[in-house]
Fold this protein.
Amino acid sequence: MKKNHCRSKTISLSTAILICVISLGIVLTGCASQNSGNSDNKTPAHGDENTDTAENTPIIVTMAPTDAPAPEQETNGPAKKYVDLLEHREQLDFSASSVESEYSPGELSASLSFDGNDETRWSSIFYDVEGCWICAQFPYPVSVHSVEINENKTWGQMMDWEAQYYDLADNTWKTIYSDTTSDEVLYEFSKDTPETYAFRLLFLEGTGITITINEIGLMGLFAEVPEGTEPKAPINFRNDVIIDAPEELYLSHAGWIFNASSREAEGTESELGPVLCFDENDKTRWSTVFGDLYGAWISADFGKEIEVNGFAFRECKTWGHVTDFEAQVMVGGEWKKVYSGQETDPSYIELAEPVKCTGFRLVFNDGETISETVTIWEISLYGRQ
């Protein structure tokens, strides 16, 4: 990546800002000074010059007005250097809409696109192209000026994408830059983003079945914050948890017997059996063998009659996803369909009416997958024993 080129970009401060800084006797420095010594979760000291400052004295860091003109438009005022916002990445949080091989030794996590290593990469799961994203969150507010993108184009490339910042005032993502090409390395914005704690790249269209990025660089400025300001906790933008589930109706799996149409690596230590969908562990999964998609199923035998009010499940979409499924219950020795759907998001699904039954199963009729498999992280049932 052309990091030296990116870091050499400068922009001028207004004369008023310069006078203010001089009057305070504080030397503006970059990201490294502002971030050093933050292991105690306090606002980092600005070098050593602030050791005797009053408790509530602001720490002045390199923050330009949000309406500052772009570098090529500015002709007057002192030069100002944008800093690497990712220099102290151990203080940051990275996430993505999806992660290839998540929870496995080969996981291609979002952090790998921010590690300064062009040989590592983040990748979305198969078919997560339209609307997928990768995000960096900061413990203190920043203003982003430009982004570097080193895309891995082995399996296709991004075509329509946006750079966005998160607006806490109305809890929405707002676009600061958009493009329909990935031929450049450095993308400079016409103006800096307002102060924000989160920045992401949103991919709207691509030529392949995944989006994968070797490295992302962010240049910008840290905002002025009072000394002692606590770092902001990251927001979970993925919503991977089961949504709106009535936890008081959660059914224990104790004593149940589990079965499936097939299981990957059957009979080995690596078997991905159906019990792994009912172990209350979101990092284990059941998977069919290759080719077992159309009509594949996974079931639970309760061993007695219980009342089922609804269910939820989280699909592992690393290698594709289901597009047609149904839920069935065992009543009088026969399977009865009680729900059919297409989306497999982790939302609670309430049945039209509670049903007393001795078993439950999911049947998968179709999907978009390369290997024609089905794989599920976890299944939860709700009702009354």
